[in-house]
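Objective 1.3, modelling of assemblies. Example input:
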Amino acid sequence: MIGPGFADPVADSQRCFRAVLEAMSRPGRIHRVPALAEVPAPLHGATAAVLLTLADGDTPVWLDCPAAQDWLRFHCGCPLVAQTAAAFVVATAGMPALAALAQGSEEEPHLAATLLLQVESLQAGQGWRLTGPGIEHAHRLAVAGLPGDFLAQWAANRARFPRGVDIVLCAGDSLACLPRTVRIEEAG
Amino acid sequence: MTEASIEAGYNFGYLDENTKRMIRRALLKAVAVPGYQVPFGSREMPLPYGWGTGGIQVTASIIGADDTLKVIDQGADDTTNAVSIRRFFNRVTGVATTEHTAAATIIQTRHRVPEAKLREGQVLVYQVPMPEPLFRLEPRVAETKRMHALADYGLMHVKLYEDIARHGAATTSYNYPVLVNQRYLMSPSPIPAFDNPKLDRMPALQLFGAGREKRIYAVPPWTEVKSLDFEDHPFQPARADAACVICGARDSYLDELIVDDSGKRHFVCSDTDYCASRPPVQDAAA
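Predicted structure (tokens):
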């Protein structure tokens, strides 16, 4: 049995997109997305809402949870492909190596993957210190449930600019974004 | 807002949901790579290229029922282009429109940046005729793509140098090229060079749409936007040395009007909302 998507697809996907756009424009700020009545396990509400908002037949997707495949295929009609070929990479159980995902090219950096990464929790005002475009002075963001070498992987990802992966961190109905330009420092 | 206020038979915002998704994905990548031109599948719109089809498609993809829209054309809320675009969005979305810069959440603009400082939470959407800043110097798209990839902007510096060597100053008074986040050369759209400093570290999100050229690009909030110049010839925005005859402003960008057969000139604020928000000067002073 496949669960429903947005109750009001036009308005809900617009609200969800504005949340993602704001989050991508102001890295580290946490935004809530419109809640879904029913979320297919093991996806979080935010992950499912972002997929409903952005994925369709033009976007190859990779996801690590077979349980949500039917739901995704039914609602978005997106092809499910290998990790390296995916425009959206959905990770619910552990982060894939950032360097293994599509990075785009120097001439076409927009072809890089967007990683939808589910984490345990997001907390503003503490933890990492984020700087870069979109941030006046610094934003603070604490993320629970990332691999131990995340900051090293992120530094390498950032060094590839203009190539590089953009991350949408999803926890429950909340999300925060890490575009490839953002600089992350350990809490100090 | 009620469903009844939307033009029957059209989706909210005129565009279909597939097109919106495609533009939304392009917008997110544009924000992630500040100043880089993301190609997108520009649609035919119910008005011709050159009338802001890029800006309209961007606005249509981001606008929601609780937004308040302001549209300006060369700073004015009451010119043909601004009025028709505002009316278009009122018909296809039913959203509230305003002429007050501070009251708007989305401001679509043709060739000006409002005088009033923008704040966080606002989005400025530019209509862009030619997104490629290098096109007069290098017409081949494949070549300009490579130049952006290599951040090879020597050609533009040579052009500026030749301007200064021949005329003593950069002769570009609008569409003055900028470097975004110290990486991508970007056309700020044909805004006067006077407006360029406003792009730098602006609290609002800036989105650029070029419909005919099928490109979208963006400047995230608080991002460094630097007009190209040389250490010994710093960037100097030009402004007519006059005061607005209506409000007396000496800090705003002015339009020059010829008011009689003998060539008498008046200067008025190009930003009509800014001008109207200030007390008018007494007749004697004008």
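Chain A has a mean pLDDT of 96.
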